[in-house]
Amino acid sequence: MSVSNPTLITFVIYIAAMVLIGFMAYRSTNNLSDYILGGRSLGSVVTALSAGASDMSGWLLMGLPGAIYMSGLSESWIAIGLIVGAYLNWLFVAGRLRVQTEHNGDALTLPDYFSSRFEDKSGLLRIISAVVILVFFTIYCASGIVAGARLFESTFGMSYETALWAGAAATIAYTFVGGFLAVSWTDTVQATLMIFALILTPIIVLLATGGVDTTFLAIEAKNPDNFNMLKNTSFIGIISLMGWGLGYFGQPHILARFMAADSVKSIAKARRISMTWMILCLAGTVAVGFFGIAYFSAHPEVAGPVTENHERVFIELAKLLFNPWIAGVLLSAILAAVMSTLSCQLLVCSSALTEDFYKTFLRKNASQVELVWVGRAMVLLVALIAIAMAANPDNRVLGLVSYAWAGFGAAFGPVVLISVIWKGMTRNGALAGILVGAITVIVWKHFNLLGLYEIIPGFIFASLAIYFVSKMGAPTAGMVERFDAAEKDYNLNK
Questions:
Q1: Candidate ranges 8-12, 251-255, 277-281; pick with highest mean pLDDT
Q2: What φ, ψ does residue 229 adopt, rounded to 5°?
């Protein structure tokens, strides 16, 4: 091991605690609804922190600080876009989706909701949306496993191959055992750990580099453009970074938190908690990468690992500046970010395979116990595929995340957003939206058209497809009736 034992001991204690929470949740998991959505029992604090932690994956402590370290504040447009997008998602989608899913067959998954909301008897909408989830989430899961592997590799001197399995094992364990409740309860612990790390670390880096004035002078001496928000950017570049915010409307692992809230009344409080947590975390992340420029320019003799891979800036600062016990806690925050997102992604994939394929098409009368165990088997299956995809040591976390984020944002974002605010949307409109959004992202990414982030054309084209195709038909009386009842319920209880 390349670091002293306290860090390893801290990791082991943390992982053991997460697995213990999994076993506690196991005792509360009696049926598929419990395993997939926790029986819709999450209070406002757990809903808020779980939504935040499941959103902020390994890129929060690795990808984004690395981008800031390399390019300066011009990379922070992504943080601004995310904050705006997350707030609008809480404001327009969260409460309405909670009510709409309940009024539409008590839907447990997004494909389930689409199928009920648009009375899709053919099963086509369910199949296509479940396939989109499986394709893009497996890529997303791979990004989480890469981040975990990088952490174990650089912290404990493991080979990449060994680190790959070590990083994934604990997450798979508690997700397999405890399902949604385990994921949500551990997310709350992990969100607390992440905000602690992201507030403490930049403060200590600032002190180590001589305070605010000295740090800023060192950053300016390295490259004055580090302060320039418009450095090496263009209008298209800024729009692309801000466009990340559009992704929130279509992320199944975040939307599942809204669906699992105990009531609409919890949503407003959850929104305030979640946005405060998110703003503090993103500010801390930007500060870590930015102040890291000053620290490593003053200490070039220890800058080797960061020069080799800039996504290790937080890891190296934690190891260099803190007592090994505290460093263990801070590095556990990266593991927390990875585990919190990976666990709920595995669960969403598992629920798509179990609820939307196995139960719907293979075993309509399967018992609840059987479905829970099928769900657990699917967690293992998706995890193994994601590990295989993550086996390339040249993978970069932010690149993998950006593709999956765009896929979901464009394929599901417009469908979810429009379905909860417009009663005139039809089944064919939803189908067109999903297909146009997903195909646009794949084609745009392949040809790298205009240098524009693929989520933006995907979101726009999908929204237009939904509107025009829906206008060619009309929703049924039942669809309008359920929409109106849900909207009335939402307005009475929000």
A1: 277-281
A2: -65, -20
Residues 6+ apart with CB under 8 A from 315: 62, 150, 151, 154, 155, 305, 331, 334
Structure tokens at 130: 């479940």
CA distance 58 to 63: 7
Q: Which residues contact 482 (CB under 8 A, 6 or more apart)?
A: 103, 104, 117
Sign of CA dihedral 312, 313, 314, 318: positive
In the block, residue with structure tokens 């929204």:
463
Instruction: Find, among 3, 1, 7, the residue nearest to 335 by Cα.
Output: 7
Q: What is the pLDDT of residues 182-219, one digit of tens each?
A: 777 777 887 888 888 899 999 999 999 989 999 999 99
Give the right CATH number for 41-484 from 1.20.1730.10, 3.40.50.2000, 3.30.530.20, 3.40.50.300: 1.20.1730.10
Q: What is the DSSP string of 14-55?
A: HHHHHHHHHHHHHTT--SHHHHHHGGG-B-HHHHHHHHHHHH
| DSSP-based three-state secondary structure for 261 | strand
Please check whether residue 349 is in contact with residue 133, taking contact to mean a CB–CB distance below 8 angstroms: yes
CB atoms within 10 A of CB 308: 9
pLDDT level of residue 421 (50, 70, 90 thresholds): very high
DSSP secondary-structure letter at 250? G
Q: pTM of the entire structure?
A: 0.86
Tell me phi and psi for residue 4, to 5 degrees: -70, 160
Residue with tokens 């992982």: 15
DSSP labels, 171-235: HHHHHHHHHHHHHHHHHHHHHHHHHHHHHHHHHHHHHHTTSHHHHHHHHHHH-GGGG-TTTT--H
Neighbouring residues of 38: CB distance < 8 A, sequence distance ≥ 6: 179, 180, 181, 184, 260
Going 444 to 445 to 451 to 454, the CA torsion angle's sign is: positive
CA 248 from centroid of its chain's CA atoms: 9
pLDDT digits (tens, 9 = 90+) for 105-139: 888 788 889 999 999 988 899 889 888 888 887 87
**In Å, what is the CA distance from 148 to each residue of 263, 321, 428?**
34, 21, 40
Q: Report the mean per-residue pLDDT for the chain.
A: 86
- Per-position b or e across 183-205, b if 16+ CB within 10 A of its CB: bbbbbbbbbebbbebbebbbebb
Single-letter code of the amino acid located at 316: E
